[in-house]
Amino acid sequence: MTTLKKIWNTCKAIAKALWAPLGVVLLVVIGAILTAAGVKGVQIGGLLGGLLGKKKPTDLKAVIKTANSIPKERVDSQGTPIQIGVEDANGVKQVPVAEIESPGVFSDPTVVKFTPPGETKPVEVQLPTGVKAQDVEHAMVVSQDNFVVTVKNDSKVSPKDVQDLLKELK
Asked: How many CB atoms lie within 10 A of CB 9?
């Protein structure tokens, strides 16, 4: 690296260290003013994360691959690895993780689909009334009658409304 490049990188680091706290204070003040003025849904977390150097999200496929690997410490009393979906001595299962399929133009908006590892047929989860597939961030199927739906932060459907709707389904 050339000396000029080192100097430039040092200047950028100093500028970021000086301007980031000022930007954070400014964003918090603006957010407080907007909230006091009655503006709903003010979300400054992403901007604050950018100013404070929040890491970018990791590759989803790599995360899913890691989640579906069996830790070397997860063994039974004979030393045999405990497979995904099988209970350990404490009754805990490591569940398979799969990415939700992106809804297409002609997809049913009231259903999310995902294909568990090793399966060929996708699993369909019927969503509560008022929740659309494009709003869903996570879906966890615990059993056929027990599931959890998490909506995205930018969804028009509030998490409280989803929980209320899920209670109505039970």
From this structure: 11
The dihedral region occupied by 25, where left means phi > 0, alpha psi between -120 and 50, and beta the remainder, is: alpha
Q: Output the six-digit token pair for 34.
A: 């907007």
Q: Which two tokens stand for residue 65?
A: 């691959």
pLDDT at 127: 83
Buried b (16+ CB within 10 A) or exposed e, 38-73: eeeeeebeeebeebeeeeeeeeeeeeeeeebeeeee
pTM summary value: 0.44
Mean per-residue pLDDT of the chain: 78
Closest by CA to 98, choosing from 136, 138, 126, 148, is 138
Task: Output the CA–CA distances (angstroms, integers) from residue 55 to 22, 51, 160, in the order listed.
Answer: 20, 11, 29
**Residue 143 confidence (pLDDT) above 70:** no
Q: Quick one: which of 150, 105, 98 has its CA closest to 124? A: 98
CB neighbour list of residue 166: distance below 8 Å, 6 or more residues apart: 128, 149
Task: Look up residue 108 and give its two tokens.
Answer: 């049913």
Write the DSSP assignment of 17-58 as a string of letters: HHHHHHHHHHHHHHHHHHHHTT------HHHHHHHTTPPPPP
